[in-house]
Design brief:
CATH superfamily of the largest domain: Medium-chain alcohol dehydrogenases, catalytic domain
Keywords: NADP, Oxidoreductase
InterPro entries: ADH-like_C, ADH-like_N, ER, GroES-like_sf, NAD(P)-bd_dom_sf, QOR-like, Quin_OxRdtase/zeta-crystal_CS
Organism: Neoaquamicrobium sediminum
Protein name: Quinone oxidoreductase
Pfam families: ADH_N, ADH_zinc_N
Helix content: 25-40%
Number of helices: 9
Length: about 325
């Protein structure tokens, strides 16, 4: 019998239970996958805690990304076959040794990319792709501020942004993370535990501030992030590791310089099969070229998912973390 992590009640990492799991047989348009590596993301903690409601309610199997091998396909599936190496960002259910998934959410993993790298980069890497190339398409000469530069998305984002020719400023919470960010493309790194990041941004830019701020931290960096933007600059909020941004009066955007603000999610940028494949292709290309290197810095057994969640929320992890079934 295969195993999976289930959440029967919302709460802290202790609610993650390692249980028997029968994935079943794939139906029309579906595939049965045996996972070899599963990506860990802050998003997983939101579903576990109940901050984000699970579409199908409780119990739930967390996780949205993984890599593995196709074991069996259902009727009408001809773009993948048994034996193919695949990866995905899909609906909940990745914290399992085996799972059924809609086959149109699968992309083939090219030669030269390991299963661990694929599992750990799909959500984070395609997030970096849509942020840099579509939400605010950066161009050479732009000045960019990215919060949580030493996180999983941040390390991919930094390398990719460097390739695109922007002036890149990152924020981190420790000297160790500052060094990590500098090694991954950030020209300037601000340790917000020791410095006022708004004042430092103004100093770094000579008062010109930034074209765009990318923020996955949330409560702790708002509204100060708005003071780092030029007139008609863009604030991109795509996460809330410190807690959600509290309600605010939209007039603050005009007061701060006719600013734009958006709250994008990856799943709305890869909603169609064509969008998914294009985003994955862009990610695979930049990784295979060597411009972006995936750093799997932590590995946990799937059975130890609670420890992985505790370390993630305790800011004890850097870069990419994977669970091994």
């Amino acid at each position: 019998m295969a195993k999976a992590i289930r959440v029967h009640e919302h709460g802290g990492p202790e609610v993650l239970r390692y249980e028997d799991h029968d994935a079943g047989k794939p139906g029309k348009g579906e595939a049965l996958i045996r996972h070899t590596a599963i990506g860990l993301n802050f998003l997983d903690t939101y579903f576990r805690s109940g901050l984000y409601p699970a579409p199908a309610g409780l119990p739930l199997i967390p996780g949205n990304e993984a890599a593995g091998e196709v074991l069996e396909v259902g009727e009408g599936v001809d773009w993948v076959k048994p034996g193919d190496r695949v990866a995905y960002v899909g609906g909940l259910g990745a914290y399992a040794q085996e799972r059924i998934i809609a086959a149109d959410r699968l992309v083939k993993v090219p030669d030269g990319i390991s299963d661990e790298d694929a599992a750990g980069m799909m959500l984070k890497g395609m997030t970096a792709e849509y942020l840099l190339l579509r939400t605010y398409p950066v161009k050479p000469g732009d000045t960019v501020l990215y919060h949580a530069a030493a996180g999983g998305v941040g390390l991919i984002f930094g390398q990719w942004a460097r390739k695109l020719g922007v002036t890149l400023i990152g924020t981190v919470g420790s000297a160790e993370k500052a060094e990590l960010a500098k090694a991954h493309g950030y020209e300037h790194v601000i340790n917000y535990s020791e410095e006022d990041f708004v004042a430092r941004v103004k100093e770094i830019t000579g008062g010109k501030v930034c074209d765009v701020v990318y923020d996955s931290v949330g409560k702790d960096t708002f509204p100060a992030s708005l003071d780092c933007l030029r007139v008609r600059g863009m604030f991109v909020s795509f996460g809330q590791s410190s807690g959600p941004i509290p309600p605010f009066n939209m007039a603050i955007l005009s007061q701060k310089g006719s600013l734009y603000a958006t709250r994008p999610t990856l799943f709305q940028y890869i909603a169609t099969r064509d969008e998914l494949q294009a985003s994955a292709n862009a990610l695979f290309d930049v990784v295979k070229s060597g411009d972006v290197k995936i750093r799997v810095n932590q590995r946990y057994a799937l059975a130890d998912a609670a420890k992985a969640h505790a370390d993630l929320e305790g800011r004890k992890t850097t870069g990419t973390t994977v669970l091994i079934p």
